[in-house]
Design a protein that fits this description.
The structure holds 2 protein chains of 2 kinds. Chain A is an alpha+beta fold. Chain A has 13 helices and 22 strands. Chain A folds into 3 domains: 217 residues, no CATH class; 200 residues, no CATH class; 50 residues, no CATH class. In chain A, strands 2-1-5-4-3-6-7 form a 7-stranded antiparallel beta sheet, sandwiched between helices. Chain B is α+β, with helices and mostly antiparallel strands. Chain B starts with a strand and ends with a strand. Among the domains of chain B are: 140 residues; 111 residues, Dna Ligase, domain 1. In chain B, strands 13, 14, 15, 20, 23, 24, 31, 34 and 35 form a 9-stranded mixed beta sheet that branches. A 6-stranded mixed beta sheet of chain B has the order 3-2-1-4-11-12. The longest helix of chain B has 31 residues. Chain B is globular, with a radius of gyration of 26 Å. Classes of the chains: A alpha+beta, B alpha+beta.
Chain lengths: 623, 678
């Protein structure tokens, strides 16, 4: 370790991450679709010669576990002999190491003095790629050909020149080619910038220094992760949950995980999960791999440098032909958005007995994917839009769940109403938190969202993929469940809210495509609340009082779920201490079994000891 | 009447710089800040001008009053009034997380109570059209709710933010009028006045922040008035704005959100001034104090601006401000070892109290100041000009355990801490450069703040910056920036014009209106004279969400002018992304007008030249190239102009210390600015 003391190593790490951040900035600022520019649904990486990640940005975790595999398969299929300086390769095929089809990986080899140094790459969700439904989110697709255009590893540019035939072919098959064209350029532009910066870094430090340094960084991350895994008690941990249906039939679909911790290694085995299904909730192998990486990274020190080294102590088993490893021609668009987050939560749930202080109760568990397409009355132009919403997250041993948060596997932002309405023909009538939706607990679950749209154009085509209509996000250690989500429509002239299944005669109320809604119709989206953590009867009554004052919890729920009797006297809320003691006693006595007292609860004043690099006064991403 | 005075109220110290406009003589003073009543320290530091007090003709104050109120969440009890159905926007925010892999991350709460959010039955659409009018029934209902709550709760401030009010403000004005009439003691902030820009969450957050800090700011202005009147200072005075301009205190009290970054802006303005005087137009400014380090950039003689900043995640403030990045790196930053054995420095700080261990006030963790003392850079008996003693043995005491854990010598640990903190600061600088696509090598570094000059050369070396500029009185640079600040008003109008359907006449009309408004506001803020006007349009390709700011001339806008602007946009875009899209439709999103009124710039006293200075002593200092060596120590005040000397050397002055390593030359120019080059 002569030239690499820890300071030098950290320095190199920061330099490499700087380059990834610059890549991300170029992508965000030059993208044409909101899913990149506002949603930030992409990741940027630097890979070494062997397609191992040496640095990344953490915009969308769902892809970082995937991209190293996607890149490896790409190189394997193309052959290094066929990759030259100035080439730009694109790849989205779900069966060749890709995620769901919208996730496009674009990579560029970096040659220095004629010799391959590595690759720069990014992966991003391209908003519209053809297929049976606008927005390429066919919630009732029965094979991949309905989901959009498949691209095996092919070149968008060859030795610096556009491969025009390929561009023409792609542009012809996407519904909004203008956006695709802009987004591809945003991706390629960011790679060009990264290539230049990497060359500068090599010029300054020398190639060997960076190669050795990044090797040591990967070793370091592996070592750190191993040490963290060692802290988890050895054992085999198991959990089962269900996806409600696949949009094609009404059957429940089992997902199952067995986590084996042995010393400094962890094996995550999805054996027992249902065979792959007809509808698009299947996951590709790399999507399942991402699940595991995200779960493990969330349970270990979040400041371990993220690179392929951190993945070494992790083994994944996902049997082919199941919902966690789909084979041709199974559809998989929702594997990325919905199954993935439930699988992450499932791993947390399996480990809840082993490391209760580190995990959360069940979070919302659905991205509430909502797609619209149509012709804008103002411009006469075709549009399509993919949006999603936040959900309540589960409580933890240390804190309440968060309200209205994007699911675990992404970090996308919502579209501001003032941006959205200028582009699309839906008027938002309401956007608020759902009171009482957080699962009661010593630490309460976070609240879900309610949104109502009014259709303002003659016609808008709607597709949706929701889940958690039936199964609620779970509570833990005595905490109760969060609430369900829902999606309903009130046709103009109708006096009732009905499901889309009822109005449009679809097999699934939560997953469907191409329902045509018309002017004056109202659409109501409700997202799930998070599960509670710990016995609600142990929640500090003062916190319940505060929740009641602030409207998070109703007076009724305070009494029913928390045993806290609050009275409103003189227009002031007050706890009736006597009645509260009695009510809590009564509720405890009525339980079939007591909830055990655990010794791992944080002590009074014990805080969550996480340190972060503070960056105050910075310009925000929406700048 | 000879003295123009700049005062900067920081977290630890309140600084004063005064300049005699006849002689160019500078007076500087420092006082401990008095957070409970910040005007006390202002009064005390002014007292230090003694007999010159009656000679003051103008005072400008930079302040962190509003900033601290926000960060510590000690502000008004605010009622939030918005369009019915959208009361939770400040709570929902943008759904994103600050820390992706941290399951214990707590989403920040806004500055208001949810129970104090009230919806009004009205709705404006995306073209500014009224979808649901704020009619008598809605207004009556609103009145009933407000009357009930204002009687029951202690609400003292109101933020009004209705959807699309940046396009049509009639409803906000209607509500404002009702409240003004019936609740004259309330302070009211409306979003169309505070920040007429789209994106409802960001606009509401800004309006709420304004309402939150308004009563504190009003109180501050009031107590300053008393302070001035007690001291019989009759000179007019101004408060600095986040955009580097200044405004009369009455205006500041009306729009306090404009002052949120005023203290930081002063540093950049001061840095720009000294950089320009030293002949540099392209600069990084680095202001390193006790707890944080603020980095700014000046390109072609102009500081760069941002239209938004975040005071912590989830608290965006959309007002024009000098663009600054802040990281937790200062003299008080604490060194620690992470779980993986990496040495880290900051963001925790020992702050002003207890301060670094070597202050001897009970600090028991190793800080950057302690490291600098161990390495010999700081003089224990000349800290703050000798008014405060440093205890070297205390620094060793706290550094040793850290060294043991790292398995290195105490000296190596101190040196490691310096490298890490320097690396953190160079990273912040690099990101600023990266954002703008510039090469740091083409820039000079202006370093100030108490600790800036101690680290400047090392940081410049990492980034390949060849020229380092240390201003006069670097420990007072922010106050100096306040002293020389101009008047400045930024106006912005969000529109969504398309290049293929552009009504050039309408565009021209909007610009004329905006310009007239900006000039009018400038005169209200205190400027009389002929202002300079800058105009620009934020453009993007249709479908994109981020804009590039394109400067347009002050001529009437016609087809030719706009074509030139489109060409400029394509150029800017290509430089940033590697592509331009000649046939794509361009969207014109924001029209911006800035009106600037120049203040009279001081002439500095010339420094004598000629003789060769003597070091006051030689001290053993640790240099990374050669271990401890005896290095000459100079007093800055002794250095004549135009007599270049070679490093290694340490240059001491009352509120700062500059380290010049081997291989660098340093020279004081005729204005007294210290210039170091490789």
């Amino acid at each position: 370790m002569s030239k690499f003391d820890t300071v030098a190593l950290l320095t190199l790490h920061n330099r490499l991450v700087n380059i990834c951040e610059e890549m991300a900035l170029v992508m965000m600022k030059t993208a044409y679709s909101t899913i990149f520019s506002e949603g930030l649904d992409f990741c940027c990486v630097i890979l070494n010669k062997d397609a191992e990640i040496i640095a990344e940005t953490e915009y969308t975790p769902s892809m970082i576990g995937a991209i190293t595999h996607t890149a490896k398969w790409t190189i394997e299929e193309m052959g290094m002999d066929n990759i030259a300086p100035g080439d730009v390769i694109i790849h989205n095929d779900s069966y060749r190491g890709g995620c769901h089809l919208p996730e496009h990986m674009i990579m560029k080899p970096v040659f220095l003095d004629g010799e391959l140094f590595g690759f720069v790459g990014n992966m991003g969700h391209v908003a519209e790629i053809g297929g049976k439904a606008p927005g390429s989110f066919a919630a009732d697709a029965t094979d991949i050909y309905q989901e959009g255009l498949r691209l095996p590893p092919i070149k968008l540019m060859e030795k610096g020149e556009y491969v025009k035939d390929v561009w023409k072919m792609i542009m012809t098959n996407h519904r909004t080619p203008y956006n695709t064209w802009g987004d591809f350029h945003a991706m390629i532009g960011s790679l060009q910038v990264a290539e230049k910066r990497l060359a500068g870094l090599v010029e300054r430090y020398g190639r060997e220094y960076i190669e050795e340094g990044s090797r040591l960084l990967m070793d370091y991350s592996a070592r750190r992760l191993r040490a963290e895994i060692e802290e988890i008690p050895d054992g085999t941990y198991h959990a089962i949950n269900w996806l409600e249906d696949d949009g094609v039939s009404a059957e429940m679909i089992q997902i199952e995980v067995t986590v084996t911790v042995r010393g400094d290694e962890v094996i995550v085995d999805f054996t027992g999960s249902s065979p792959q299904v007809k509808g698009p909730i299947n996951c590709t192998w790399v999507v399942s791999a991402s699940v595991v990486y995200i779960a493990i990274l969330s349970l270990t020190d979040p400041y371990i440098p993220r690179n392929s080294g951190a993945f070494r102590p992790i083994k994944i088993i996902a049997p082919p032909g199941t919902v966690v490893n789909v084979q041709h021609p199974g559809p998989c668009v929702a594997g990325n958005t919905d199954s993935q987050i439930k699988l992450i939560d499932l791993i947390l749930s399996a480990l809840s007995q082993a490391i209760p202080r580190k995990i959360t109760a069940g979070s919302g568990g659905s991205s509430s994917n909502f797609l619209i397409g149509g012709v804008h009355p103002d411009t006469g132009q075709y549009y399509s839009n993919y949006s999603f919403d936040g959900q309540g997250t589960g409580g933890t041993a240390f804190k309440d769940g968060n309200d209205a948060e994007i699911p675990r596997h992404g970090n996308c932002r919502n579209s501001p109403i003032e941006v959205f309405e200028g582009r699309y023909s839906l008027l938002t009538l309401e956007y608020k938190l759902v009171n009482d939706s957080g699962g009661p607990g010593r630490n309460r679950g976070g609240l879900g969202i309610s949104r109502i749209y009014e259709v303002t154009a003659p016609e808008v085509t709607i597709s949706a993929l929701f889940d958690r209509f039936k199964i609620k996000p779970w509570g833990l250690f005595g905490g109760k469940e969060g609430t369900n989500s829902s999606l309903t429509i009130k046709k103009k002239g109708d006096n009732r809210w009905r499901t889309f299944a009822e109005v449009y005669g679809r097999p699934s109320a939560s997953k469907f495509t191409n329902a045509v809604v018309t002017k004056g119709d109202l659409i109501h989206i409700v997202t799930p609340g998070g599960g509670g953590f710990g016995d609600p009867l142990d929640r500090n009554p003062e916190l319940v009082l505060e929740d009641v004052k602030e409207g998070y919890v109703s007076l009724e729920s305070a009494k029913r779920d928390y045993g806290v009797v609050i009275v409103k006297t003189n227009k002031m809320y007050q706890i009736n201490q006597e009645a509260t003691r009695a009510e809590r006693e009564r509720l405890r006595a009525a339980r079939p079994e007591p909830i055990p007292l655990y010794d791992w609860w944080p002590k009074e004043g014990e805080s969550i000891n996480v340190v972060r690099e503070q960056l105050i006064g910075r310009r925000s991403r929406s700048g | 009447m000879k003295y123009r005075v700049g005062i900067d109220t920081g977290g630890t110290f309140t600084d004063l710089v005064a300049i005699n406009r006849d002689t160019g003589q500078l007076l500087v003073a420092k006082e401990r800040s008095t957070p409970e009543r910040p005007s006390d320290a202002v009064g005390k530091v002014l007292q230090k001008m003694n007999k010159h007090i009656p000679e003051i003709y103008f005072v400008i104050l930079g302040t962190t009053i509003a900033t601290n109120a926000l960060i510590q969440r000690r502000g008004a009890n605010v009622a939030y009034i918005t369009t019915k159905g959208f009361e939770d926007i400040p709570f929902i925010q943008r759904l994103d997380k600050e820390e992706v892999y941290n399951l214990q991350w707590q989403k920040p709460k806004p500055l208001i109570k949810r129970a104090n959010c009230f919806g009004v039955d009205e709705r404006i659409g995306y073209k500014g059209q009224i979808i649901k009018s704020l009619d008598q029934i809605a207004l009556e209902k609103f009145k009933r709710i407000i009357d009930k709550h204002f009687k029951e709760d202690n609400l003292d401030s109101v933020a009004i933010c209705l959807l699309f009010s940046y396009l049509n403000n009639t409803h906000e004005q209607k509500l404002q009028k009702y409240l003004e009439k019936n609740y004259p003691s309330l302070s009211i902030s409306t979003s169309h006045a505070v920040c007429p820009m789209w994106r409802e969450f960001e606009r509401s957050s800004t309006t709420i922040a304004d309402a939150f800090v308004k009563p504190v700011t009003i109180e501050y202005v009031k107590s300053l008035k008393e302070e001035f009147s007690n001291m019989k200072i009759e000179a007019p005075w101004c408060v600095m704005k986040s955009n580097g301009g200044s405004m009369f205190p009455e205006v500041a009290a009306k729009e306090p959100v404009q002052t949120l970054l005023s203290g930081l802006a002063g540093g950049v303005i001061g840095g720009r001034y000294f950089g320009k005087l030293a002949g540099d137009k392209n600069l990084f400014t680095l202001d390193m104090g006790g707890t944080s380090c603020d980095v700014g950039i000046v390109e072609n003689g102009q500081q760069s601006y941002a239209s938004e900043f975040q005071l912590g995640f989830g608290l965006p403030i959309s007002v024009p401000c000098v663009e600054i990045s802040t990281i937790g790196a200062g003299g008080g930053s604490i060194g620690w070892i992470d779980k993986g054995g990496f040495l880290r420095v900051g963001p925790f700080s020992a702050g002003a109290s207890p301060g670094p261990a070597s202050y001897g006030q009970g600090g028991n963790e190793p800080t950057v100041t302690d490291a600098n003392l161990i390495l010999g850079y700081l003089n224990p008996s000349y800290f703050l000009g000798g008014s405060m003693l440093l205890f070297k043995e205390k620094a060793y005491e706290v550094m040793e355990p850290l060294a043991k854990k790292l398995g290195v010598s105490t000296l190596e640990a101190a040196e490691g801490m310096r490298r890490v903190v320097n690396e953190n600061m160079s990273n912040a600088l690099r990101l600023v450069a990266v954002k703008r696509g510039i090469d740091p090598k083409d820039f000079a570094l202006v370093a100030f703040g108490g600790a800036g000059p101690l680290h400047a050369v090392a940081i410049a070396e990492v980034l390949g910056i060849p020229r380092i500029i240390i201003p006069l009185h670097p420990g007072h640079c922010s106050a100096f920036g306040a002293l020389i600040s101009d008047w400045r008003v930024d106006r912005v109008l969000t529109r969504l014009y398309r290049s293929d359907m552009l009504d050039v006449k309408l565009l021209n009309k909007e610009f004329m209106r905006l310009t007239a408004e900006a000039i009018e506001e400038l005169s209200q803020e205190g400027f009389s004279g002929e202002p300079a006007v800058l105009r620009s349009i934020d453009m993007r390709y249709q479908g994109q969400n981020y804009e590039h700011e394109v400067i347009v001339s002050n001529n009437a806008i016609d087809e030719n002018e706009i074509e030139t602007a489109f060409d400029k946009f394509a150029e800017l875009y290509e430089a940033f992304s590697g592509f331009s899209h000649p046939n794509a439709v361009i969207e014109l999103v924001n029209l911006r007008v800035t009106a600037i009124g120049d203040s009279d710039k001081p002439k500095l006293k010339k420094v004598k030249k000629g003789y060769s200075p003597e070091p006051v002593e030689k001290r053993s200092v640790f240099l990374s190239q050669g271990g401890y060596i005896d290095v000459p120590i100079y007093r800055r005040i002794d250095l004549p102009s135009n007599s270049p000397l070679h490093g290694p050397a340490v240059i001491e002055e009352v509120a700062s210390t500059t380290v010049v390593p081997k291989g660098y030359t340093f020279n004081v120019d005729e204005n007294g600015i210290l210039i170091i080059s490789s």
